[in-house]
Design a protein that fits this description.
The complex is a heterodimer of chains A (about 160) and B (about 425). In chain A, about 35% of the residues lie in helices and about 20% in strands. Chain A has helices at about 15, 30-35, 40-45, 65-75, 85-95, 105-110, 140-150, 150-160, and strands at about 1-5, 50-55, 80, 100, 115-120, 125, 130-135. In chain A, helix 4 links the parallel strand 2 and strand 3 (about 80). Chain A is globular. Chain B is an alpha/beta fold. Chain B has two domains: about 1-250 and about 260-270, Aconitase, domain 3 (2-Layer Sandwich); about 280-429, Aconitase, domain 3, CATH 3.30.499. Chain B contains 14 helices and 19 strands. A five-stranded mixed sheet of chain B has the order 1-12-9-10-11. In chain B, strands 5-4-3-6-7 form a five-stranded parallel sheet, with helices on one face. Chain B has a five-stranded parallel sheet with strand order 17-16-15-18-19. In chain B, helix 11 (about 315-325) packs across helix 13 (about 350-360) and helix 11 runs parallel beside helix 14. Classes of the chains: A alpha/beta (about 160), B alpha/beta (about 425). The interface of A and B includes residues 11, 25, 39 and 156 of A.
Chain lengths: ~160, ~425
């Protein structure tokens, strides 16, 4: 799927992705409308389905609020790519069906505004600016299974229906 | 600070390995292994409204084990707006429908204080909570960690979750705290050294005479804030102090778990607090830590004593000792939030709350409100706060141009008095 790159730095925390003042409203549409509010006011206005968010080290550090992943997913973000992730954000993203890809070599090559084409199954990102296709280390099979099912809830429902 | 690599010949296991082996029903587990772990306790606060929404979508009628779930409300109490009120209402309805016995309404206090106080967090247990500071219960020898609402819905359904067995760090602390220097200063110093991602995915074990002589409250401060360097869990091995604290509180039986001799630690660090200066985490990251002398004299508008990090009786007493018989600076709004109803009552009986009010402070109800910028202490553009809480991210307490400095309750009290960031040590000379 094609999209545009929104690139940020190290230690992007959950409070700037989704500020505490908005936590009581669980509506995904609302959350998408205030996504990244304290980091980049242009994001919520400009983000389009298929875009990817790129961060440096320790992306999503701070609170356990899963709204920080919900707001990106609801805004149409197809994946978050970073040098490293804070562990709770990583789990939240996967559990909500939003791929979190740890790939420093890819982060280095991506620039703000780049057009990209992401293929999760193949584990590749094509950067249209340079024509280069970058491979990233695939996510573990059990995580890919959760993502393919659309997140933890559909994944659990599927397992329970099978009697597992 | 010293750092050295762990032993090359691993023979024993760390606390995290041993707790996850037990929780996963295995003889032993290796670092990096994925374990399907059964949890001993599952805690959720106001976000239980979101968890229950996810749980309903799974389609099960009953939770896996109603005795193992603890629910309470602390983030926005009493409700600060209609959305929150609706969330609280949903939680009460869920509690009634499921017949959950371990439920605390808005009156009880902050989850991370209430859980230990009521004996729900025990040595050797595996505990998950929908709050990042769930690492706090490591102060009692538990392995405890934060998860999101969707994941908790899965735990309510199945009683288990996948966890990767973390690498472990060993931090040994020596020395006696100088007067006016506290466990909060130690953990800020540690975070300043290791940085915000320095312990990402790691389980941190704390050892040494300073930890052993530290109160359970001090250990809670340390384990609570270890999350701010990315730790998955932070553990002070249970000792006599732990057992004494648990007397008459512990809900159920427990077996403490200790690291084996020769356990493999990926990194080891040593700290000495004998000459430690009070520390301050400066805007806008928790690892931007400086000795207080570097920022002393910076004017402030607000000062907060409270939170799961530093809202216990000893914290409130430290601040009150400085403010007794004095008046808060005219430019400063001092807000004091006891961490729980129990702390509130004890601080009230000891005259601590009266000291704050007489000094011109505002004592609010137990809860998280101002720490996360939910209510009861929001800052306007350009304002500055010194706070005994745990995060100073941009916009954390209000307008994105406001600033938060993190410090010990004593440093907050001294600053409230002087109107500028101030070193508390001179009040103990």
């Amino acid at each position: 799927m094609k999209g545009k790159v929104w690139k940020y730095g190290d230690d992007v925390n959950t409070d700037v992705i989704l500020p505490g003042r908005h936590l009581a409203n669980y509506d995904p549409k609302f959350l998408a409308s205030v996504a990244m509010e304290d980091l980049d006011k242009e994001f919520a206005k400009g983000v389009k389905p298929g875009d990817i968010v790129v961060g440096g080290r320790n992306f999503g550090c701070g609170s356990s609020r899963e709204q920080a992943a919900t707001c990106l997913s609801a805004a149409g973000v197809q994946a978050v790519v970073a040098n490293s992730f804070a562990r709770i954000f990583y789990r939240n993203a996967i559990n909500l069906g939003l791929p979190a890809i740890q790939a420093p070599e890819l982060v280095e090559k991506l620039q703000k505004g780049d057009e990209i084409e992401l293929d999760m199954a193949a584990g590749t990102v094509k950067i249209l600016r340079t024509g280069e296709t970058v491979t990233f280390r695939p996510l573990p099979p059990f995580i890919m299974e959760i993502l393919t099912d659309g997140g933890l809830i559909p994944h659990l429902k599927k397992k329970m229906a099978k009697g597992q | 600070m010293m750092q050295s690599l762990g032993e090359s010949m691993p023979v024993g296991k760390t606390i995290a390995q041993k707790i996850l082996a037990r929780a996963g029903g295995k003889e032993s587990v290796e670092v990096g292994e994925i374990v399907d772990a059964k949890v001993d306790r599952a805690m959720s606060h106001d976000n239980a409204a979101l968890v229950s929404k996810h749980f309903a979508s799974i389609g099960l009628s009953k939770v896996w084990d109603r005795d193992k779930i603890v629910l309470l409300m602390d983030h926005r109490v009493p409700a600060n707006d209609i959305k929150t009120a609706e969330g609280h209402k949903k939680i009460r309805e869920f509690v009634a429908a499921q017949g959950l016995p371990n439920f605390f309404d808005i009156k009880e206090g902050i989850c991370h204080q209430v859980m230990p106080e009521h004996g729900y967090a025990l040595p050797g247990q595996l505990i998950v909570g929908t709050d990042s500071h769930t690492t706090t219960y490591g102060a009692l020898g538990a392995m405890s960690t934060g998860i999101g609402a969707t994941e908790m819905a899965g735990v309510w359904a199945t009683g288990s979750l996948w966890l990767m067995v973390p690498k472990s760090f060993k931090i040994t602390v020596r020395g006696k705290f100088p007067k006016g220097v506290y466990p909060k200063d130690l953990i800020l110093r540690i975070i300043g050294e290791l940085k915000a991602d320095g312990a990402d995915y790691a389980s941190v074990e704390y050892y040494g005479p300073t930890i052993r002589s530290m109160s359970i409250g001090g250990r809670m401060t340390i384990c609570n804030m270890s999350m701010e360097m990315g730790a998955k869990s932070a553990i002070c091995p249970a000792d006599k102090k732990t057992m004494k604290y648990l007397e008459g509180r512990a809900k159920g039986h427990f077996t403490p778990i200790y690291a084996d001799k020769g356990a493999k630690y990926e990194k080891k660090f040593k700290f000495d607090v004998s000459a430690l200066e009070p520390q301050v985490a400066c805007p806008h990251t928790v690892d931007n830590v400086k000795p207080i002398s570097a920022v002393a004299g910076t004017p402030i508008n607000q000062a907060i004593i409270g939170s799961c990090t530093n809202g216990r009786l000893e914290d409130l007493a430290e601040g009150a000792a400085i403010l007794k018989g004095k008046t808060v600076h005219k430019n400063v709004r001092l807000i004091v939030a006891p961490a729980s109803r129990t702390v509130y009552i004890e601080a009230s009986k000891k005259g601590i709350l009266a000291t704050y009010v007489a000094a011109g402070g505002v004592v609010i109800n137990p809860g998280c409100g101002p720490c996360l910028g939910a209510h009861e202490g929001i800052m306007a553009a350009g304002e500055r706060c010194i706070s005994s809480t745990n995060r100073n991210f941009k916009g954390r307490m209000g307008d994105p141009t406001s600033e938060v400095y993190l410090a010990s309750p004593a440093a907050v009290a001294a600053s409230a008095l002087e109107g500028v960031i101030a070193d508390p040590r001179r009040y103990f000379q």
